[in-house]
Protein 1
Amino acid sequence: DTEAPGTLQLISSAKLTAPACAVFSNSTATDGLAAMDASLLTADYSCSAGGAAGAMGNYSTPPVTDCRPVDDPLAARGVPANLSCDHTNFAASGLIRTLNPGVYCGGIRISNSANIVFKPGVYVIKDGELRSDRGGIVGGAGVTFVFTGNGSRLKFDPTTVLAFSAPETGPYAGILFYQDPAAPNLETFEISSKTASILLGTIYLPNGIFKVHAPNKVGDKSAYTVIIARRLDLGSTANLVINANYSSTKVPVPDGVGPNAKLAPARAPDRRRPAHPPGIVRCRPRVRAAKRNDP
C-alpha cells in the first residue's frame, strides 16, 4: 500500500480533528493523502510521502508532500506465545455479563442489548470477529485486544455503545488494539457507533483498514489516541478526534509513538523507500498519521 491511492482518506463530510498533532501518510501515490468532498483534516502538520488530493480548504494547514516515510514503531511486539483456545465462537445476547481475558477462537459476538464488561487483561481474537450489534454495550479498562489468524477483525455497528482504555502496565501497556503483523492484508476494523467517545491508547493495525463511518465524534473523551494502520478510511459525518493529553492519564504511551516518536526530516532527499509501516495515525504533542511500506 505504499503506492496505493487514498491510504489516508476522508470522504463525504468526515473530519479528522487533531489540532495539536501531525498526520503522516507513507503512500507515494499522488493522492496518498486525500481529503475529498466536504471533509476536513485539522492538524498542526500534515505530511505525505507522495502527494495530497482534495481542495486546500479541506486542510487546516497546507499538506507537505514528498516526505520521508515513517518507520513502524511496534512491529516487534508480537502476539502471545500461547494461543490455545479458552472459548470457541463465544456469543452473548440480551444479557449482562463480565468476560475474562483469554483466547477467543472464532471471535466474540455481542448483540440484542447485551451489556458486556471486559475485565483487565489481554483478549486474543483468533480466526474471527470482535463484533457488537443491535444495541450491544461493551466496555473495559486496562484491556488489550490482539487480533490474529484468518478473518480476525472488529465491527461495532451504529447501535453499539463502547468505551475502552488500554492497560497501564504489562507487555501491552498503552496498546488497545494490536493486529498480528503476520495477519492477512486489508482486514477491515470498523467503528460505526453513535457512542464511542473513549478509545484510550494505541490502535495498531499494520495490515488492516481502520474504517470510521460513525455519525458522531469518536474518541473525543480519550486523553490520547494513537493510530497506526495500513489504511485509514473516514466517511459519512464521522469526526475522529485525536487528543494528546498524555499527562492526564496513567495509561502510558508506547515507545516510538506519541511524544516518544522520532520524526524524520520533512522532505525526503530522494525517492528511495526502506521498509516502513502501513497507515499510521499517531500524536506527538501533535498527531501523526502515517503509512507503512511492505517488506
Protein 2
Amino acid sequence: HHLPLGTVLKERYLVGRVLGEGGFGITYIGCDLQLELKVAIKEYFPTDKASRMSQASLDVSSYTGAAGVSYGKGLKKFLQEARTIARMDKQPVIVNVRDFFEVNRTAYIVMEYVEGTTFKELVEQRGGRIPAGELLYLIEPLFFALGEMHGNSLIHRDISPENLMLEKGEVRLLDFGCARETADGGNTLTIALKHGYAPVEQYQSKGQGPWTDVYALAATIYYCLTGRKPPQAMDRLREWKNRRQVNKSVGEIPRLEGELDQVRELLDQMEDIRAQAVRLEGEEAGLLRERERLV
C-alpha cells in the first residue's frame, strides 16, 4: 500500500523509501526537485479506514459507512494541523512544514528533513543512560516549544526517545503527523500507542490534552536517565492504586530514596494532576451544556 519509489507528487516532490509508519499515516524520505533539498513527506493513510492497491493506482480508497465518514473528518483535521504547525515556523525546536496539499484522494504534509541522533540512540551511545545535567540542558528548549504548541491548541501525542532528535547539538521534535487539534475539548482520535510513553487517556476514547504530552515527556526523561522504558500506563495505574490502598491501611507513606524513586514519585503526582484536569474538563463541558439548554 506504500507509494512506489520514484513517485512524483505535485510535479515537485520525489518520493523515496519509507521512514516510518503508524496507524495514522506513512512518512517517506523525499526530495524537493525545485529546491534540490531532502524533505520528509507525511501521507494521510489511516490503515483502519482506507486501503490502496499501489500496483493499480496511487489513489487511496476509504472504506464505506462510518469508517468513510471518519476518514473524511480525519483528512480535514490533517490539513488544518499542517496550517497550524506552519504558523509556528519561528520555533526552532519544531520541525517546519514546507508545503501541504491534496492528491490521490488523500493529503500530504511536506516537512523539513532532520538528520541527527535520536535520544534512543544517544542513550545507547552514552552507555545506557544520559547524565541528568546533560539531559536537562539538552531538552530545556523543548519545554518552551511545547508551551507554544499547546498555546495553539495542538498536542503531539507521540513524544518518545525515537521522536526526539539531536541535530547539531540542538533538540528537535519529530513526527508531527501525529499531532491533533484540541480546541473543541472533545473526543480525540488515537494513534498506534508507544507502550510505556502513552498515558492512560490514550487507551481511552477521550480526555487527551496538553497533560498527555507532559506524561510522555516525563516518561522519555525517565528512559534517558535510567536506560529502562517505563511500565505501561495501565499497569502503573493498577500498581499506583494498590500502593495507595496499602499506604492508607497502614497509615503511613513509605520513604522514597534515590533518584529513581524521586522520578516515580513525580510521575505519581502527575497522575493526580492529570486526573483532576480531566475531571474539571468534564465538569466544564457539563456546565456549558446546561447553559445552552437554559438559553
Protein 3
Amino acid sequence: YGMRRKEKNTTGFTLSYSLLQTDRDYREVTERTAGNQIFSRISELTRNMIHELNGRSDYKIVLSENHYADAGAGVISYFTNNRIGSIRDTVGSSLLVPYLYFQDHTVIMDGLSVKPGIRMNYHSTSRKVYFQPRFSLEYTLNDHFRLTAAAGIYNQFVAKSMILDTSRNYKLAWSLCTNNEIAVLNSNSFTLGFTYSRNDFIFNTEGYFRNTGGITRYLETAGGAVAYEGESRTKGLDLFIKKEFRNYSFWIGYTLSKTEEKFPYFPSGSFIPAMHDQRHELKIAGLVKIKSF
C-alpha cells in the first residue's frame, strides 16, 4: 500500500511472509563381510523450517531537486521449527528484530551523488542494538562512463549453519542467531565498480572485499555436537557484458573470487580455502523476442 503526500513525498506500507522448508532422509547400513550380519544401522529423518514475517513502513521525503531522503521502520519476526538432533537450542525458537533505517541522496555537483545511511536493528533476545552505517557514491563522467563505490557494515540474524559428521560429510540448516550458542553474523563490505554503456552495449566490472565474522559450525562427536565460531574473508571481481541486437539480447557474467575461512579447530590456526570456495564462475544467457502467434 502506498500514498503520495504534498505532491512529492510518498508513504508506503509493506507486509510480507516467506517460508523455507528442507526435508532430508539419511540412511546408512554397515554389514560384516562374513555372515552378512548387520554391524550398525543409521536412519535419520530431519526437517528444517524457517518462517519470516516482515512488516515495514517507508517514507520518501523530497527536500529539493537534488536532495531527497528515504526513511523507514519495521519489525521482522523469525520462527524455526527444526527436527535436527545435533542442534539443541533451535527447535521451535523465535526471534523479533525491530529496525529503523535512514538514507540520504544528495547530488553534490554535476555527475557526483552520495548516499550516506544507517540501519539500526534491535535484537530482542540479547537486548542489543546493532548499528550498521553505510556509504556509497556514484560519479558519472559522461554519457558513457560511470564509477561507483560503496562501503558498509551488515548484520544477519539468521544463519545457514554447517553440520559436519565424523566422516566430514556435511548438511546445512537454518538457525536463529540467538547470540548465545549461535552468534549474530557481521560483515564489513567494500566494493568499487566501473560501467561503460553505448548504444545497446553494456560493460560492467566490480571488485569487492568482504570480512565476515560470527560464523557458527557444528562438529558431531561421540559426545554430541560441538559448536565453533569462525570467520571468513572473500575477495573477487565480477565482469558483466550485455549486447542487444534487434529482437535478441545476450549477456555473459564471469566471477573470479577467493574465499578463505578460519575456525578454532583448524590444526594450522590460520585461514584455509573455504568448503564453498569457487574460484571461477561463468554464466551465459540469451533472450529472443518472438512475435505474437
